[in-house]
Design a protein that fits this description.
Elements: H1 8-28, E1 39-44, E2 48-56, H2 61-71, E3 75-81, E4 87-94
Antiparallel strand pairs: 1-2, 2-4, 3-4
C-alpha cells in the first residue's frame, strides 16, 4: 500500500482492494493476462487510487470486468499500448466520492 496514506479509514479501504485483487485475480484471469505482470499502486493527491498492470500481452472485456468486480468500488479503466507487443492497463478509483473522505 502506498506509504504516504496516513488516514486509517482510507488505508483500510486501499488495503482491502489490494487483498481482493491478490486473492481473486486467479479466478478472474484464467488466461494469465494480468497475473505475473508488474502491478503498481499509487494514490494521487489523496483523490484517486491508481492500479496499473504493465507488460500485459493482451486483455479482453471479461478480464477487465472481473478486475473491476474485485476492486469492489466504482472505477474507470484505460488500456494503452506500452510497446508494440504489450499494453498498460490502468484502473482508477475515485476516493473523494466516498462519504467521510
Amino acid at each position: 500500500m502506498p506509504e504516504s496514506v496516513t488516514d486509517p479509514i482510507l488505508r483500510q479501504r486501499l488495503s482491502a482492494m489490494q487483498q481482493r485483487l491478490t486473492r481473486g485475480l486467479e479466478q478472474v484471469d484464467p488466461h494469465h493476462r494480468l497475473r505475473g505482470h508488474p502491478i503498481h499502486y499509487k494514490v494521487i493527491a489523496g483523490q484517486t487510487f491508481e492500479i496499473v498492470f504493465r507488460d500485459v500481452p493482451s486483455i479482453d472485456e471479461g478480464d477487465l470486468a472481473g478486475v473491476k468486480r474485485l476492486i469492489g468500488e466504482h472505477c474507470y479503466c484505460t488500456v494503452m499500448p506500452q510497446t508494440a507487443e504489450t499494453l498498460t492497463v490502468r484502473f482508477v478509483v475515485q476516493l473523494a466520492d466516498q462519504p467521510g473522505i
